[in-house]
Amino acid sequence: MRTESFHAARLVELFRSCKIATMPELKEALGTEVDVTVFRKLKKLAYRTSYSHRGAYYTLNEIALLNDLGLWSFRSVWFSRYGTLVKTCEAFVTASEAG
């Protein structure tokens, strides 16, 4: 059995200190140049991608303190419980009285 080279705990440490991170920052934290390695480790964690900035930012669900509308921002980067901007808009329109 192969020993694990990259540990998801490194990502957790990064998120706890910085709150949000980009793919290059996540790769640096893991010590890899491969996106797929980062996604494998993120898969083990409950995480979100930003709906602003073309989804370039990541955070952990436990860090994203969503408000009553299901939104959270940090340093002008926005996250939503619904995921993408399109899904967020759809949820707001569906929930509105005028629909």
Report what the structure shows.
The chain has 99 residues and is an alpha+beta fold. The chain has one domain (8-95). The chain is 39% helix and 17% strand. It has 4 helices and 5 strands.
Shape: elongated
Number of domains: 1
Low-confidence stretches: none
The separation of the N and C termini measures 55 Å
Q: Tell me the structural class.
A: alpha+beta
Write the layout of secondary structure elements.
Blueprint: H1 8-18, E1 21-22, H2 23-30, H3 35-43, E2 47-49, E3 57-60, E4 71-74, E5 77-80, H4 85-95
Antiparallel strand pairs: 1-3, 2-3, 4-5
Gist of the model:
The protein has 99 residues and is of the alpha+beta class.
Name the descriptors.
single chain, 99 residues, alpha+beta, 3-stranded antiparallel beta sheet, two-stranded antiparallel sheet, elongated
